[in-house]
Design a protein that fits this description.
The protein has 145 residues and is mainly beta. It has one helix at residues 22-30; strands spanning 9-10, 33-34, 42-51, 54-63, 67-68, 78-79, 83-97, 100-109, 117-119, 130-131, 136-144. Helices cover 6% and strands 46% of the residues. The strands form 4 sheets. It has a 5-stranded antiparallel beta sheet, with no helix packed on it.
């Protein structure tokens, strides 16, 4: 079993050194810092319920927030706010049609359209802000042979 608690640290950047400031490299050379993708807690899970030829499913994705660098603080010593999203999907199967078996899906990711910041651009080597995906609808039709 894997632990949902993690800590990622490193020191002494070896590649891409031209992307970092001299003072930042000097600090990281002598100190362990949190890596930009360090996130103490993360969670994902889902459930599905079948009724007849249909299924409905829901999933969640949550995290405690990735690292950032507050003004004047050591590299990657801060943490962004946590986030969480939910998705749902409906699937239906039609069997023995003239064209064969069909499966239709309708789904939505980030159901509540929660806008959240994954990175603010201040972490070591990050460079630009990155946001989690907004509400997205998916529709699909598959034919089985």
């Amino acid at each position: 079993m894997h632990s949902p608690i993690a800590e990622a640290k490193g020191k002494n950047i070896i590649s891409g050194q031209s992307l970092f400031g001299v003072d930042e490299l000097a600090y990281i050379d002598d100190h362990y810092i949190y890596l930009d993708h360090d996130q103490r807690y993360s969670l994902s899970g889902g459930l599905t319920y079948r009724f007849g030829a249909s299924r409905i499913s829901a999933n969640v994705l949550a995290g405690s927030g990735l690292r950032n660098t507050p003004d004047g603080a050591p590299p990657n010593s801060g943490k962004l706010p946590g986030y969480g999203t939910m998705g749902i999907a409906l699937l239906h199967e039609w069997k023995d049609l003239a064209v064969g078996n069909l499966e239709g899906r309708l789904g939505v990711a980030n159901l509540f359209d929660k806008s959240y910041l994954l990175r603010d651009g201040s972490g070591v080597g990050v460079g630009a802000p990155q946001y989690g995906g907004r509400r997205t609808w998916f529709v699909g039709l598959a034919q089985r042979f």
